[in-house]
Write a structure and sequence with these properties.
By secondary structure, this protein is mainly alpha-helical. The protein has one domain: Tetracycline Repressor, domain 2 (Orthogonal Bundle). The protein is 69% helix and 0% strand. Helix 6 packs across helix 7. The chain is elongated.
């Protein structure tokens, strides 16, 4: 019996969702196609009915993770002042591993060491996700009238991604919390009154 297009699309979503969770939890190299299919409740043999390669699955899984993150950040900052919105973005991003409602973490700090060697569709999704994150932050630094708002946004994103990466590398929770708290304070200082310019 042939599956309907709706069933096929739903199955594909299950595979991508399972892949996003496993890649972010275990890493890309350590996660085999068979692992993903088992997690999705399917057999390995059905994989190539939905995807041309593991790279295509990695790209789609990362896109899902990015979209989930950005959807949450957009929802949490809606209606807030520029200062509140920026503080919210920074705090939620830094403490993403402690947010239960966020199903998938950001691929940049969690898979960065593997993604830097990627190419093709995986690289495209990674770069697009990074640029999207920078745009979200830039929107707020511009609203705050920060003199060099684009450069400041780039610095903030670099600080956020790097801090999350380091906090996951250290062995004790106290040091991890200190890294994240210091990053949050550094962003506040970077965007303080002295960084803002008056517009005519």
């Amino acid at each position: 019996m042939r599956r309907s297009k709706g069933d096929t699309a739903e199955t594909r979503k299950r595979i991508v969702s399972a892949a996003a969770e496993l890649f972010l939890a275990r890493g890309i190299t350590s996660t085999a196609i068979a692992d993903v299919m088992v997690a999705a409740g399917l057999t390995k043999g059905g994989f190539y009915r939905h995807f041309e390669s593991k790279e295509q699955l990695i790209a789609e899984a990362n896109r899902l993770a990015f979209d989930s993150l950005f959807e949450m950040l957009e929802a949490k900052t809606k209606g807030k002042t520029p200062k509140q919105a920026l503080e919210t973005i920074v705090h939620l991003y830094l403490y993403q591993h402690r947010i239960k409602e966020l199903l998938y973490k950001c691929p940049l700090p969690n898979l960065g060491s593997e993604l830097k060697r990627s190419n093709g569709c995986v690289k495209d999704v990674t770069v697009d996700g990074c640029q999207h994150l920078i745009r979200l932050v830039t929107r707020q630094t511009e609203r705050l009238n920060i003199a060099d708002h684009e450069a400041t946004a780039h610095a903030i994103v670099s600080m956020m991604v790097g801090s999350v990466t380091l906090s996951e590398l250290v062995s004790d929770e106290t040091t991890a919390k200190s890294i994240l708290a210091n990053a949050e304070r550094a962003v506040h200082a970077l965007c303080g009154p002295s960084a803002r310019s008056r517009r005519a």
